[in-house]
């Protein structure tokens, strides 16, 4: 199989294994996902989901959060780590949304990239999950699994992995595929323990074994 054929088989099997896989960050509005994905850097999604409850209770909309000082935000988000830089980015980002976008998150990839604290991974997540547009989110699970499976060859740089995946993943599948990689990476193809290859739905086609 070439990489494109392999990708289609992997997509199909993961779809059957994790039919309901979606974003593991809780949100009910685009700006909340923007906040959560910034807090999720070097922090678990589970912890972020707990911390943001207190943040949104105190600052329930873009305007309220834009009015808060970085120090006030940091006080609440500190348990996520890197509190000072995350609070500074969130504060600046909410002010831009308020002042330039009428409190709305732009549905344009390049405009998202210009927001403080938003990189390609975050912008792709927003594009795919919020706006339903083609997206590939190259988080640590995606990078690790795509290298193990053989969809990319020894590439660790997120943007380079993303660009390689765009060549072989159908655009409409990218977002859900990346969510399923997260589930598979947590449950089966783990990072901190030996991968559970004996119960992996990809074992017979995985580059780790062939």
Explain this structure to me?
The protein has 210 residues and is mostly helical. The chain is 58% helix and 0% strand. The protein is built from eleven helices and no strands. α2 crosses α3 and α5 packs across α6 (83-100). The chain is elongated, with a radius of gyration of 18 Å. The model has no long low-confidence stretch (mean pLDDT 97). This is Endonuclease III. GO terms for molecular function: class I DNA-(apurinic or apyrimidinic site) endonuclease activity. [4Fe-4S] cluster binds at residues 189, 197, 200, 206. Pfam families: HHH (PF00633), HhH-GPD (PF00730). Residues 39-187 form the HhH-GPD domain.
Distance between the termini: 12 Å
Overall morphology: elongated
Largest sheet, in brief, is:
none
Number of H/I helices: 11
Overall average pLDDT: 97
Number of strands: 0
- The helical percent reads 55-70%
Radius of gyration: 18 Å
Domain HhH-GPD: 39-187
Pfam family, one: HhH-GPD
Organism: Dorea amylophila
Catalytic activity: 2'-deoxyribonucleotide-(2'-deoxyribose 5'-phosphate)-2'-deoxyribonucleotide-DNA = a 3'-end 2'-deoxyribonucleotide-(2,3-dehydro-2,3-deoxyribose 5'-phosphate)-DNA + a 5'-end 5'-phospho-2'-deoxyribonucleoside-DNA + H(+)
């Amino acid at each position: 199989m070439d990489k494109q054929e392999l990708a289609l088989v992997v997509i199909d099997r993961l779809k059957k294994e994790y039919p309901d896989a979606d974003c593991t960050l809780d949100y009910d509005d685009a700006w909340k996902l923007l906040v959560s994905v910034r807090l999720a850097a070097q922090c678990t999604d589970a912890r972020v989901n707990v911390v943001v409850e207190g943040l949104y209770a105190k600052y329930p909309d873009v305007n309220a959060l834009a009015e808060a000082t970085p120090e006030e935000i940091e006080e609440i988000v500190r348990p996520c780590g890197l509190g000072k830089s995350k609070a500074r980015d969130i504060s600046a980002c909410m002010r831009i949304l308020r002042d330039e976008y009428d409190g709305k998150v732009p549905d344009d990839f390049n405009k998202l990239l210009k927001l403080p604290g938003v990189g390609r991974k975050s912008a792709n997540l927003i594009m795919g999950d919020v706006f339903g547009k083609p997206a590939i989110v190259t988080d640590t699970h995606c990078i690790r699994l795509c290298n193990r499976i053989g969809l990319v060859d020894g590439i660790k740089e997120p943007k380079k992995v993303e660009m390689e995946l765009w060549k072989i993943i159908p655009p409409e599948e990218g977002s859900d595929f990346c969510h399923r990689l997260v589930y598979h990476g947590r449950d089966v193809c783990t990072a901190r323990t030996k991968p559970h290859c004996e119960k992996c739905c990809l074992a017979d086609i995985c580059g780790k074994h062939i």
